Amino acid sequence: MEHNDALQAFLKAWQNEDFKKMFRFSQKTWKEGKSEKHIEALFSPNKMKGFNVFSYAYVSGVAMKYNVDITLANGTRIMSVINVICEIAPGKPAPYGEWGVNPASVQNIVSKVSPKEGKAAPASNKKPWKKPEVKKATQEQIKKAKLNADK
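Above: the chain's sequence. Below: its structure in token form.
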């Protein structure tokens, strides 16, 4: 099973309130010492109506990040960043292991749209991360750096 298959199975199981199946497609490390009741406690308060996986990124050969638009039964839409990890055993990532969703990462909410508001609001009071600006060196700075390097 590939990473996308594990994510799709996990999200469809949440939509169907099949907590046993959600647990089955969870990351091995997260599952260690937990049961299906933990999944149920995390996800049963928020019934899911639907989802759309709109982008993903390879973090490494054993980790993926998915951006998912989730619509809850009450009409609230959330944008979540979900981690999918490949492991052979708890705490042992490996490219030839089994892919599983980290259920806690589903809580990585980037934005939230309430049906009453009708517009996106930040998921928290934290400011969104911005890539730092990279300033190019001026010709004068380059000359100084070359002169200092020659000394």
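The helical segments are 3-15, 19-24, 28-31, 36-43, 139-150.
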